[in-house]
Amino acid sequence: MEPATPARSEKGPRRGTMNPMSAPKTTTKKSVSQRQQQPGSGSKGHDGTVRIKDERPLQSKAYRKACAEYVYAYLSKHGYRSDRMKPGWFDSPSTREFFSVCEFLLERIDPNLIVSAPQKKSTPEDLISIVRTKLLYPYDVPKSALASVGAITTWPALLGLLSWLVEEADETDRMKER
User: Fold this and answer.
1) Would you state the pLDDT for residue 143?
2) How far apart are CA 111 and CA 136, in angstroms?
3) Most confidently modeled of 11-15, 103-107, 127-131?
4) Buried b / exposed e across 41-52, counting CB within 10 Å, b at 16+?
5) Is residue 23 part of a domain?
6) Over 50: is that where the pLDDT of 93 sits?
7) DSSP code string of 80-97
8) How far apart are CA 74 and CA 3, in angstroms?
9) Which stretches does DSSP call E strand in 84-147?
10) Higher model confidence: residue 22 or residue 160?
11) Is residue 22 part of a domain?
């Protein structure tokens, strides 16, 4: 059974993919000066690429729950195995487990994305760099979030990242089926 997901606007941040975790967008027109005053809207990320302001309601408990159910359902369906992976895991995950999930999802999207030297394991920064540069994740992920994944201030944005990765993995799965 698929988890309930929030309604989605047809105009998402990506190239027409169907993201059930995207927030509905309002269509109020703003002047150039108003748009320039908004922090984060169109700002540059750490890697120099332009990031848009994340309009998803990531601070909403109900929205985070829907995201967690969406990610959990995908991981369960596609064989992600972890002794700690239970629905409650999404309340405050460990850094190690979070990046294990990221690696799993990146491998589902493209097995060639994570290529590291045999003696060097991928670092969290490497994984986030892949998501930003190769998959073109449209939102910024602060480096401080990588140090404290389960913190109440950083987890919502990282859960948003996971739901976005699941969307990409779903799209990849659909393309493989065609």
Assistant:
1) 80
2) 17
3) 103-107
4) beeebeeeeebe
5) no
6) yes
7) ---TT-SGGGGGS--HHH
8) 10
9) none
10) 160
11) no
pTM: predicted TM-score of the whole model, two decimal places? 0.71
**150 compared with 7, residue with greater pLDDT:** 150
List the CATH number of the domain containing 132: 1.10.418.30
Res 67: pLDDT:
94
- List the domain range (segments joined by +) for residue 151: 57-177
Tally of domains in the chain: 1
Residue 43 lies in a domain: no
Residue 20 placed within a domain: no
Please report where in the chains the tokens 């990046």 appear, as a residue: 99
Q: How many residues belong to the chain?
A: 178
Count Cβ neighbours within 10 Å for each residue of 106-130 and write b for 16 or more, e otherwise: bebbeeebeeeeeeeebebeebbeb
Separation between Cα atoms, residue 102 and residue 156, nearest integer Å? 15
* Cβ(133)–Cβ(51) below 8 Å: no
